[in-house]
Design brief:
12 helices; alpha/beta; 8 strands; 42% helix; 8-stranded parallel beta barrel
Length: 265
């Protein structure tokens, strides 16, 4: 069984302290921490003032930290400015820094920035993963792999079904990648076709839990590596607004994820 992570966005506007406890209480092996501003919601951003408390909670619960989120490849200056955040995340046990190419259309410049980011991250003992983002400048797994290759750095890929499906891809896309390219897998679900009223908000605000939508998750996960960590990234503003607490959201997410993995096994 791969290590299972409750990724930060799942609990939307929740503090790191609460999210870490919720992940542990729900039986996850690990969680992700949002260390690089801006966060998509205000509360998850882990600041230096929170580090000591978060370290104590991590030590008390035994929860691991896999992913440190999330760096956009927009400038070299931004790479240098995120050093303190990466160092803090590494002190808290983080294993991999996540990058996206959301805003930079210059492929050559993005590759150079990615190479530098991977170098800086490695200085803190962190590996680097690159996630294609359907609304960004590296949208598909193939584009992300090409960017990682161009960088010349040892950069893996983060595979997220949401971005694959919304960029027009499917299970066959995973077969085009060489072994070892994908080093982290995220899980979520969604409707097919995508209703017009969620196009702009689905990714950040309201994804479906595994098994609640139409994504071909069984085929996707059978095509993905099984020896890498699996995170669940299913933001649900609706649950939060209905008063469902972080711990209950985490428990439901874990139950849906385990059900999916049991079917695969």
């Amino acid at each position: 069984m791969p290590r299972l992570s409750l990724d930060s966005l799942t609990l939307t506007d929740t503090s790191p302290q609460t999210a870490i406890r919720a992940a542990a209480e729900a039986g996850f092996d690990a969680c992700s921490l949002w260390v690089i501003p801006p966060a998509l919601f205000p509360s998850p951003l882990l600041t230096p003032a929170m580090e000591r408390e978060c370290a104590a909670i991590i030590a008390d619960t035994g929860i691991g930290v896999i992913t440190l989120e999330v760096f956009d490849l927009h400038s070299m200056a931004a790479v240098e400015s995120c050093r303190p955040q990466l160092e803090m995340g590494a002190r808290l046990g983080g294993k991999a820094a996540l990058a996206i190419n959301y805003s930079n259309p210059d492929r050559a410049a993005s590759a150079e920035i990615l190479a530098r980011f991977a170098e800086v991250a490695a200085g803190f003992g962190l590996s680097t993963n690159l996630e294609p983002v359907a609304g960004g400048k590296s949208r598909t797994l193939a584009e992300a792999y090409d960017l990682a290759r161009r960088s010349g750095a040892d950069v893996g890929l983060c595979f997220d079904p949401h971005h694959l499906i919304r960029a027009g891809g499917g299970p066959a896309d995973l077969a085009t990648l060489p072994p070892g390219a994908i080093r982290y897998v995220q899980v979520c679900d969604g409707p097919i076709p995508q209703p017009a009223d969620i196009v702009m908000t689905e990714a950040v605000c309201e994804r479906l839990y595994p098994g609640d939508g139409d994504f071909p998750l069984r085929d996707l996960l059978r095509a993905a590596p099984r020896d890498v960590p699996i995170g669940i990234e299913c933001p649900s503003v609706g649950r939060a607004q209905a008063g469902v607490g972080a711990a209950d959201q985490a428990r439901e997410a874990m139950a849906k994820l385990q059900r999916l993995l049991a079917i695969l096994d």
